[in-house]
C-alpha cells in the first residue's frame, strides 16, 4: 500500500497506543472497518447533480437545484459551493469591496449580469430569488466566453470568474496566478461537500488518530466555548473537541459545528465509519442550523462533549435530531472559508 492509505500495521499501532480503561473495543473496531474499507471506490467522480441532505438552507434549495442545472459547466453542488464561499448563504452580506447579497455581486457586474430570476419585474441583488439565478447565469455566460479554450470547462469558467475570461483565453486554460488556481481548487473541492455522494467515499487516513485523541478526553467536564487550553482546564465544548481531535492529526477544522459539516463529503447512515463527524439539529433541512457535533466510533455510538454539567462521553447517535455526517478530508477542511 502507498502512503495515501492507512495500512493495517499503522492501524494496529494506533490501536495499541490507545487501548486502556476498557476502551480497546473502539479502536479494534476502527481497525476492522479500515481494513474492510481499504478497497472501497474512491470518492466522488464527475459532476454531482443532487444536493446533499440539508447542505443548502431549505429556503434556497429549490433555486440552487433548478438554476444549478442551467448549463453543462455548472451543477447544483458547484453553485452551492460558490454561494457558501461568497456569503455563507447570507442574503444580507456586504463586503468591504461593496460586493452585495447572497452571491456577492459588485454593482457594476450586477448592472450587466443581474437578471429578474423570479419574474416580478425587478432585479434585486438583495433578493436570493434574483441573485441565485443571476449567479448561475453569469457562470454560464463566462463558460460561453471560454468554450473554445482547452481543458476542463468548469475549471475554465471558475478561473474566468476570478481572473477574467481574457486571462483564461490568453493562457489557454487556468492562468498561472496563485489566487486563481487556489480559487478553482477551493470551489471544486467544496463542491463535494454539497453533493450527495454517488458512490461510497474513502475513509480518512487521520480518522483513527482523531478518535484516539477524543478517547483520552473521556470524563473531561464540558465547557461552553472550550478549546482544551490550559487556562480552560483542558475542557471543551462539542465543536472544540472535534476541532482539537482533528488538529492533533494535522487537519484544521473551523471552530463551529455548522461549518465543520462542510469539511468533506457526507456518507449515509449505513455507510458511517469511525472518525466521521456526526451532526445534530432542530432543523433537519438546514445545515446552517446545526447545533451539535460528535465523532463516530462505530456501533451507533459517538464520543462527544454533550452539554454544560456533563462530561465527554459515549452517546448514541440515533436520535430524532440526527442530521447527518461528514467524512473529513484534508482538502475539504483547507477549502473552507475562515469566516462565512
Describe the protein's architecture and organization.
The two termini are 38 Å apart. By secondary structure, this protein is an alpha+beta fold. The longest helix is centred in the middle third of the chain and has 18 residues, at 128-145. Helix 1 (8-18) packs parallel to helix 10, helix 6 packs across helix 7 (153-163) and helix 7 packs across helix 8. It is elongated. The chain has 13 helices and 5 strands. The chain is 40% helix and 8% strand.
Tell me briefly what this model is.
This protein is an alpha+beta fold and 340 residues long. The protein has helices at 8-18, 24-37, 58-67, 76-87, 107-113, 128-145, 153-163, 165-171, 178-194, 207-216, 238-247, 257-260, 330-335; strands at residues 277-281, 290-298, 301-304, 313-316, 322-326.
List keywords for this structure.
340 residues; alpha+beta; five-stranded antiparallel beta sheet; 13 helices; elongated; disordered N terminus
Instruction: Give the biggest sheet.
Output: 5 strands, antiparallel
Helix and strand pattern: HHHHHHHHHHHHEEEEEH
- Count helical runs: 13
Structural class: alpha+beta
Average pLDDT figure = 87
**Total number of β-strand segments?**
5
Report the oligomer: single chain
Reconstruct the topology from this structure.
Elements: H1 8-18, H2 24-37, H3 58-67, H4 76-87, H5 107-113, H6 128-145, H7 153-163, H8 165-171, H9 178-194, H10 207-216, H11 238-247, H12 257-260, E1 277-281, E2 290-298, E3 301-304, E4 313-316, E5 322-326, H13 330-335
Antiparallel strand pairs: 1-2, 1-5, 2-3, 3-4
